[in-house]
Amino acid sequence: MSFKSTTASRRRVFEIAIICALPLEARAVKALFETQPTNEENIKYDYGTGADADFNKSRADQNAYTIGRIGHHDVVLVHMPGIGEISAAAVAADLKHSFEGIKLALVVGICGGLPGSANGNQPEENRRKLMLGDVVVGKQVIQYDFGRQYPDGFKRKDDPENSLSRQNPEIRAFVAKLESKREELEKQMWGSLRSAFKFKLNEGSSTGPLHELRDELMPPTYWHKHHNLDDCRDKKCRNDHGVCEEARGSSCEQLRCDNNQIFTLGRGEPKQKPDIHFGTIASGNTVMRSGEERDKLAAKEKQSIIAFDMEGAGVWDYLPCVIVKGVCDYADSHKNKKWQEYAAMTAAACTKVILDQWPGIHPQQSLENQASFNPKN
């Protein structure tokens, strides 16, 4: 593929955007690019310079992009400046300025999962339990931290006027199609994961980067705090509902969390074939780090929440959107970053198989067939 200079009209060739909040998420997506420009800074401001500019973006656009191809799609990877809904909304708005032809925006990355609760609208015997490394595809998004704080507690605004809208019929139908082919997609995702990240998975090895991962879960009432109270300098951990700042940034090993409290959800290391789950994602500017609050929120919401993220709500109302997130923790106080890389890889691999299901643009419109385009003609 040739990535030559272009005019603003040629940006309309791009119908697919992939939005990532963290560098590790973007790296996982880029690993799936079949082709990409040699110059990472390939999109410059559009000052009307025509052929002298590379993939001109709108002058008002503050986003950073990387262009590539996944399957039969030319895609634009959007690098967010930071996490959270506000940043995501600003990125989505700028993206629309430069790439007016976007028909599908995929918010791809990592999230916290509600342990063992996926497909919660199904009978218990039919549920597929959500575990670390699995992938969540959002059918709906709620803003769980948008509401009013009363003396007796927080009340989320869930009336139609203050709720996120549904996606357009095309996106809803597409997600329904994906859900109907879930088992097939899971097989394809595993193939994509093995192909793109074989050096990371290091199959059959006892020394690979992911060999040390363990899928472990603590009870929601067992707090991440100093359990040897003499280790707590400011004594906050002595209180039943107190946690010191030092504890918040410490590992379970440093705090002497009781290993006898740990239970697994069916595996002790990265599962060979991650599952895909469809459901509601709770999105907010607050990082969910409480097992008790996580479970309370899930219990009182009408929708079946299966995961928590920080960007989905920011993009949802701006673009035709599908959220694809790999589960890296259980949204509790014991969360850590050990599973983040693997979860980013599973989300990226799932994104590839999702794009294989999305209809491509007419071949004559693709970048590859416009390589000889001359804006001065």
TrEMBL record:
Signal peptide: none
Gene Ontology biological process terms in this record: nucleoside metabolic process
Top-level taxon: Eukaryota
InterPro entries: NLR-like, Nucleoside_phosphorylase_d, Nucleoside_phosphorylase_sf
Nucleoside phosphorylase domain mapped to chain residues: 15-151
Pfam families referenced in this protein's UniProt entry, alphabetically: PNP_UDP_1
GO MF entry, a single one: catalytic activity
Entry protein name: Nucleoside phosphorylase domain-containing protein
Natural source organism: [Emmonsia] crescens
